User: What shape does this take?
Amino acid sequence: MNASTHPSSTLRPADLSLHSSAIQQPSASACLSGVQLGYGKQTVLRDLSWQLLPGQVVGLLGRNGAGKTTLLETLLGLREPQAGRVELFGQAALQIDDAARARIGYVPQQSDLFEGFTPAQLLAYFRSFYPRWNEAKVEGLLSRWDIARDKPIAKLSGGQQQRLSIIRALAHEPDLLVLDEPVASLDPAGRRDFLRELVDQVLDRGTTVVFSTHILSDLERVAFNLAFMSEGQISCQAPLDELIEQLRSVQGSAAQLQSLVSRLGAEVLRRHALEGGQARWLIRLPADAPPDAQDDRLQALNLEDLFMELT
Amino acid sequence: MNHEQIFSINTGSTEPIYRQLMEQLRRRVASGQLSAGDEIPSVRELAQSLAVHPMTISKAYSLLESEGLLERRRGLAMRIAPQHRKAQSAASRIELLRPSLEQAAETARQLELSAAQALQLFEQILQELPDPQEGDAA
Assistant: This one.
C-alpha cells in the first residue's frame, strides 16, 4: 500500500451517528490527539488521534504487534507518550482524579490478579476503592460463571481467572470499559456469556466499550463500530454495517478499474498491483448507491476480508 | 416460538447482521409462520438473547417498520402489521368507525365521564382485543 491511498484520508475518522444524534458535540469518554510513542528506535504509535464517544462499542482490530495493547495502555494513562495529548472524561489521562478513575473498568491482556488471594478476598479488597459497587452483579456472575469464592486464584484455570478479571472490571459499574483480548482463554459458551454481559452493560448503562480481540465473530456481534490499527495509527473507524455495505474489492486493468470507479462514483482506498498489468483495488461505493445497480466484478467483503485489507 | 427459532446470526458473512435479521423476519411472514398481529421480541430481549448490539436490532426493526412489515405501538411490543388492510385508505376506515363512537360519546356524557376517562377505557378495550384479524365486527 502506498501513503497516497491510505484510508485515513478517505474514510471518516470517527462515527458520530451512534446513540447521540440529538447531541451535537458529545464530550468524548476518551480522546487521543497526536500521540507519539516508541520503544527505543521503534515507533509504535505514530501521531495517533482517536476518540471514543459515550455509548459506543468499538472493536479494535490490528495485526499481532500492531500496538493495540500499547494503545489501550496509553489511553488509560498507564504509559506516557513522547508527544501528544490523552484525555479521559476531559482530564489529562496521566493525572486523572479518583472520581474519574472509578468510572473506568479495565481487563488487561495479562492477568494482574493477586494470585495468593482468593476471589472473595480479591473482590473485597477492590470493593474498598470504589464508591459504587454492584454486589448483586458480582454474586450473580460468580455463581453463573462457576468461580470458587474461596480457592486461591493461582489454582483457578486460565478461563476462570479471565472471568474473575472481567467481574472485577464490571463490579463498580464503569462508564468506560477497556478490554484487551478479554476472551482469549474462554470457550465458546463462556464467550457468549461474556458478550451477553457486555450487551447488558450497553442496555442498562450506556457504557462506552473498547475491546481488542482476534475472534472476529465476537466483534461482529457486539461492536457496532470498528477501529482498524495500522502503521501506528487508527487507519479507519466506521460502523461495521457501513463498511460491509460500501467497501468492495475489484480486479482488472487500471484503465478498466478507472472507468468503473468513475461510473460508480466510488473512491479508491487502496491499489494493489498484480501480475500482467492487472490490479486489484479496494473501493468505497457512495452511501446512496442502489444495491443492485452494481457490477459483477465488484466483490463484497466480510469482516475477515476487511481485516486483511485495513490492518 | 422463541427468539432462536425466529432468528439466527451468521457471522463472517458479507451480509450485515441487521439485514440478516430483516430477511429472516420477512421470510417468517411470507411463509405464514408469523402473521399479522403476532408480537415480536423487544430490542432488549433480542439483543440479550442473540448477544448482539441493541443498535443492530433496532436498525432492523425500524427499517421493517418503514417497509410496513412491522407496526410500532407505544408502550407495547412491536408486532407484524396487518398488511392486507393497507389497501383501504385509513380515512375511509375511520369514517366507518364514526357512528359507533358518536353513540359512545353520547353515553359517556350522560354518565358524566371525562374525555380522558372515556379515552382511557377505549384504549384499554382496543388493547384487550384478542386477535386484530377478528376485530372488524362493526
